[in-house]
């Protein structure tokens, strides 16, 4: 996960590199870099989930074309669960606190947060494979139910993200 932080560091301008040596500014800038890395990871997660949503749209079209009423309600529940997860990731705390924020998030916690988001990336890759697999399944309803269970597991995992952020105030 330090690869993302290092990539953000490498893309700094000369002025940013010079000011990173100024006392007090360096720590502030490190937090900013970690915050930027966190933002990049979450944007990536949202992009991948939106790609999964596009795959599922093909499944939904197939269900509509075959007039599979039983699978249609399951498909709607899957869609709602996926939308909810995308929304949570999109609007989650950045794991960064400004100077006057009540809860201060330390650099090590930001690193944990980025590592946590990386595990979410791995889970989303698996979810993508499962979504692609739905297209070839005979029993779409069962495949969608299994997919929804994985979505809920991923959502529950993502909900633990705040535990890392608020671990600071314990």
What does this structure look like?
With 170 residues, this protein is mostly helical. The chain has one domain. It is built from seven helices and no strands. Helix 3 packs antiparallel against helix 4 (69-90), helix 4 (69-90) runs parallel beside helix 6 (140-159) and helix 5 packs antiparallel against helix 6 (140-159). The longest helix is centred in the first third of the chain and has 41 residues, at 25-65.
User: What overall geometry do the principal axes of the alpha carbons give?
Assistant: elongated
Helical content band: over 70%
Could you describe the largest sheet, including whether it forms a barrel? none
Q: How many individual β-strands?
A: 0
Task: Please identify the structural class as seen in this structure.
Answer: mainly alpha
What share of the residues does DSSP label as strand, in percent? under 5%
| Count of individual helical segments | 7
- Summarize model confidence as the mean pLDDT: 77
Order of helices and strands: HHHHHHH
Work out the count of structural domains: 1
Poorly predicted spans: 96-103
Characteristics of this structure?
about 170 residues; mainly alpha; 7 helices; about 80% helix; elongated
Quick structural gist:
With 170 residues, the protein is mostly helical. It has helices spanning 2-10, 14-19, 25-65, 69-90, 107-134, 140-159, 161-166.
Layout of secondary structure:
Blueprint: H1 2-10, H2 14-19, H3 25-65, H4 69-90, H5 107-134, H6 140-159, H7 161-166
Helix pairs in contact: 1-3, 3-4, 3-5, 4-6, 5-6
